[in-house]
Amino acid sequence: MRALLLAGGLGLVGTLIGTRYAIAVLSRHGYGQQIRDDGPTSHHTKRGTPTMGGLVIIVATVLAYFLAKLLTQDLPSASAMLLLFLFAGLGAVGFVDDYIKIVKQRSLGLRSKAKFTGQTLIAMTFGWLSLQFPDYRGNAPASPAISFIRAASWELPTILVIVWVFIIIAGTSNGVNLADGLDGLATGSAMMVFGAYTIVGIWQNNQFCPITPGQQCYNEIRDPLDLAAVAAALTGACFGFLWWNAFPAQIIMGDTGSLSLGGAMAGLAIMTRTEMLLIVFGGLFAVITLSVILQVGYFRLSGGKRIFRMAPLQHHFELLGWAEVTIVIRFWIICGISVATGLGIFYAEWVLGV
Predict the structure, then answer these.
(1) Which of 263, 258, 196 minimizes the C-alpha distance to 228?
(2) Engineered SS bond to 31: which of 26, 95, 339, 350, CB 3.0-4.6 Å?
(3) What is the DSSP letter of 76?
């Protein structure tokens, strides 16, 4: 538990202090955000705002976790190492995307095929590795069965598990990426989801069968407390970064941050056996993603008509005249309700034993 508290605190301090220096360095090198010409006109004031701030979140999270393990003289677990691999790996894909935008001075970075290939390579590698490294009870970091709050009794073939893992990772990372359009929206929402997974990991550890035997104990999860430590480091890192990313943002996390944070959410869901519950925890991201799917689908089927004035959904409300701060706060409220609902479902399953 000390490692968890240290990870959260160090993650917070890391981004709170580190982002200040990152802003100065990125500004000095001219690494500023490019803005879409077809977006809300109010966004043109953001042009030139330092981007790639997700690098600070990644470095702070990784350092916070390893420093916490060093200070508590505890060895990192296979689950945590794989989660950090997924987190940093997708961050690297996002970094390349952001860097191309800066160098080419355009709002689009990597071509869609190249970006998809990078995400696929990282996700597939994570999926295969997560089925390795069983502990003394035979539990690997990921389960070969689909899970809602616990793993189902039936298992999938390895290749289908890897495909399923890829779908979760791609969907979540792109969902957070779509939500990253207003100052502080994705950062604050991600912070709530990671906070929820910190609680989930602590609870699963406290009700871990080797520690607390019982009918409702968790037996199939590997390293729940160490996963909670990574989630705590992510929560603290997002919290500290929000100081600088809140409206008006002095730095933007870019795809470097959004892809990595989405990947970390997916990894936590997979390894805590709460894959389908992630849809509830990340309800805001799911709705924003759905708005894009509906917009694109309806546009093609109707011959050019639109459901929303603009997708993703947050930009629709901007074009309706809502202030950016109003949208962000109201979307945070929706995210908070989603997270609270997810925790309620998680706890109810344990209480009712269903």
Answers:
(1) 196
(2) 26
(3) P
**Tens digits of per-residue pLDDT, 87-98?**
999 999 999 998
Q: Which two tokens stand for residue 37?
A: 């010409």
Secondary structure (H, E, C), 263-327:
HHHHHHHHHCCCCCCHHHHCHHHHHHHHHHHHHHHHHHHCCCCCCCCCCCHHHHHHHCCCCHHHH
Q: What share of the chain is helix, strand, coil (3-state, %, to 5)?
A: 70, 0, 30
Q: What is the pLDDT of residues 271-281, one digit of tens each?
A: 999 999 999 99
pTM of the model: 0.93
**Is 147 in a helix, a strand, or coil?**
strand
* CA atoms of 282 and 193, how far apart (whole Å): 7
Instruction: Report CA torsion sign: 294, 298, 300, 304.
Output: negative
Task: Find the DSSP H helices in the chain.
Answer: 2-28, 54-71, 78-104, 112-129, 158-179, 185-206, 224-245, 254-271, 278-281, 283-301, 313-319, 324-352
How confident is the model over 124-151, as a mean pLDDT? 92
Sign of CA dihedral 86, 87, 91, 94: positive
Segments making up each domain of the chain, as ranges: 2-352
Tokens of 73: 């003289």
- Smallest Cα–Cα separation from 1: which of 205, 200, 212? 205
Give 199-222 as a DSSP string.
HHHHHHHHTBTTTS-STT-B-S-S
3-class secondary-structure state, position 111? coil
Alpha-carbon distances of 275 from 82, 272, 298, rounded to whole Å: 16, 8, 29
On whether the CB atoms of residues 268 and 165 are closer than 8 A, the answer is no
